[in-house]
Every structure is written in structure tokens, then in C-alpha cells.
Amino acid sequence: MKRPPAKAEENAIVLRAIRTQQAGAFELYAFFIAASDILQIADISRIKREGDELQGFQRKEIRAHVNAIVEFLDSGPVLFPNAIILALSNRVQFEPSRGPAPAGLIDVGRSGTLTIPRGVEGQRAAWIVDGQQRSLALSRTKNRDLPVPVIAFVSPDIKTQREQFILVNKSKPLEARLINELLPEVGMLLPRDLSENLLPSELCNLLNTRPESPFFGLIKRASSGANGVISDQTLLTAIRQNLRPAFGGLAAMRSADGIDAEKVFEALITYWRAVKDTFPEAWGKEPARSRLMHSAGIKAMAALMDALIVRTEATADPWGEIREALSRIAPHCAWTEGRWPSELGMGWNEVQGTPQHISKLTQFLVTKDRELSRALVK
Fold first, then answer.
1. How many Cβ atoms are within 10 Å of 261's Cβ, its own excluded?
2. Amino acid 215: pLDDT
3. E-strand stretches of 125-229
4. Above pLDDT 70, what percent of the chain?
5. Which pLDDT score, from 0 to 100, does residue 8 have?
6. What separation in angstroms does the CA of 255 have from each of 192, 261, 266, 347?
7. Which residues constitute the domain of residue 109?
8. Are strands 126-130 and 42-43 parallel, antiparallel or unpaired?
9. Together in a domain, 168 and 230
10. 86 and 231, same domain (yes or no)
11. Could you report the per-residue pLDDT of 340-354, keeping only the tens digit for each?
């Protein structure tokens, strides 16, 4: 392989490395790099949104965690065997070593030199997939020459980087909101528990970003920071319940070919718009001011949705009947003030997001709807 010109190497790091391939497609490198050089070659791709487009994949810096690692690194001679995982662009160059292979060599990798350009932030040749907090700490330690192990793969696009980020961090205490928001942006076959979150997460994205949605701008996602009112985890749980085979109100939208996502999205918008119209004084407020926006309220109303869809599916105008049912039940609700009826027996702000309270609130709403609908028939 032709080496880059000397001028280009003046602003590059040249390292001893081992190159191999996995699955015949992914090019991987293993090497060591000085602690102070990691953030000279690699960027941290922060998760954020530009309009409807999701960019990046990394969570925010956890200052206490970084400081603790720096303190450890500065404490004296330390062992730091934890590898940083990088995604490399095609700007890197590898030149294999020359010479005969030793007798009996197990040939699983090729040694050589890897040239990685340095760059300013946002224009570097690599991205950190795993080890963001460690990399920040390594850039700040006094032990600047500490050799740090790195495993790097050549990534053709941001989607591959996100796939690896999700799989690497699946078994770690990574914020579930971050993984769930990234899921719709990848296209590979994922572990079953992640795949089951794929549609609910995409629906959550749409509910938060489409102006016609009653949840527009109200959902807290990893990319939105502190903005929003409703936890995306709460809504994801509610949507998964709605989609449960045989039990969920939206289960009928499943077929042998999968789920009709467009119909599910329209049903969610229609129902929650009816909820918003029925309880305008409780909609869009912080959970501390409205229990409708609380995890208890969202989950209980989602469970009521299941019951209402099942009860009204054979009527001439199911959604019209659902709106009327919500109107009938409204006087019996205490989302922002007062007390719930004796069957529930709690002050409006005493309702908490515990399984017991959610179950009691759900049972009250479903039972009250059944009573009120039967009273109309008599």
C-alpha cells in the first residue's frame, strides 16, 4: 500500500497495529495509543436532533464519573486494561509489515502500521463508540503517556456506529431512553428484547415530532435533555401494552405480515387527542401539577384505551363512542385538584407511579366506564 506523503503524516499519529476481519466484511484493528492522544483522533458524537433527524448517539458527560476516573489515573502506577472502542473513517491508512511469517503462526491478524490523522473537533477521523467517559478522563490525566488499548472498526456510516453502540452498551447500565431513541435509526437484526422496542420507539419519535400529535414537543427523549413533560419510558411502556397480542387494544392491527404502523399511529393520535380535548386543564402540565401527565395517569389511560377499543369496536362509530365515554368519565376524575371518588379514595396529588397505584387507578377508570356505559342501556 502506498504511504501518505510526509506532509500529511506531520499531522497524523502512526501506531503499531494488528488488522483482521470479522464476517468477511468488517475490518478491525487492535492497537495501543497514549492517553493524551485519544481525543486528538476521535470525536464524541453527542445525541441531538436537527428537526426530524437524529444525530449522534452518545449520552452527555457524567462529570462525577469522569472525575473519579481521573483521580484513579492520577493516583500513581495503575493498570488500565479496559479497551476503548472506536469507529474509524476511511481516512485511516494501514501498511502491513513485511517479512516472512514465523513457523506455526496462527494467522488471525496482520501486523503493520496504522496512520490516523489528527483533527479539530467535529472533523476527526474516528468516533468513540464505547468509552466516552474513560476517554474524557484519559485526556485530563497527568499520566498522559499511559498506553491505552483500543479496538477499532472501519465504519461505512453512522448507522453501523449506532448498531455497535447499542449492542456494546446493551449489557451495561446505559440509560434505556438513549437506547430506545436510537433503535429506529438502525437496520440490523437486533436481540429480541431490543427488536420488540423498535416500533414503540419509532411511534414515540413520531408522536413527539409531528405537529398533529397531541404529544408534540411534550415527550422527554435522550436528545431533548430536560425539555418535555412526559417520560418516553412511560409512553413506550403504554404503547407496548396497547400492542400486546390478544390483550392490547391495538393488537387487531397485527397480521401475518406484521403490524400496520400507520394505522397504529393514527389510532394513538385519535385516542390521545380525545383525552387532551376531554381534559384540557390537565394536558401539557408538569406531572407535579397534573397526574394525567404522570406515569400513573398515562399508563392508566392507556389501559383504559384498551378497554374502550374492545368495548366499542362493534359499534357504528367506535371513536365517537370513545369520545363520549371519556366525556362521561371526566366528572369522576381528579387530575389537578380535589379528591378521587371513594372507590379510589386518594387526593389528586397522592397518586404515585407505583404498580399498586397504577393498578388501582386503572381498575377505577375501567370499572367506572363500564358502569356508566351500562347505565345508558337501562
1. 13
2. 95
3. 126-130, 147-154, 219-220
4. 78
5. 43
6. 19, 11, 17, 43
7. 6-173
8. parallel
9. no
10. no
11. 999 999 999 999 999
- Structure confidence by residue, pLDDT tens digits, 164-196: 656 655 545 445 555 555 555 544 444 444 445
CA 191/CA 258 separation, integer angstroms? 18
Choose the final residue of a domain: 118, 152, 173.
Answer: 173
Same domain, 126 and 252: no
Q: Is the torsion defined by CA of 36, 38, 42, 47 positive or negative? A: negative
18-27, 250-259, 323-332, range with the lowest pLDDT: 250-259
CB of 229 closer than 8 Å to CB of 284:
yes
Taking the C-alpha atoms of residue 351 and residue 71, their distance in angstroms, rounded to an integer, is 43
Cα separation, 16 vs 115, whole angstroms: 9
Nearest CA to 147 among 80, 240, 201, 85? Answer: 80
User: Distance (Å, rounded) from C-alpha 117 to C-alpha 125?
Assistant: 6
Count of Cβ atoms closer than 10 Å to residue 32 Cβ: 13
Question: What is the C-alpha to C-alpha distance for residues 259 and 203, in angstroms, rounded to an integer?
Answer: 12
* CA nearest to 272, candidates 205, 326, 224: 326
Q: Which amino acid is at 365?
A: L
122 and 238, same domain (yes or no): no
Sole residue written with cell 491508512: 93
Degrees (nearest 5) of the Cα angle 224, 227, 231?
Answer: 85
Of 173, 188, 208, the domain-final residue = 173
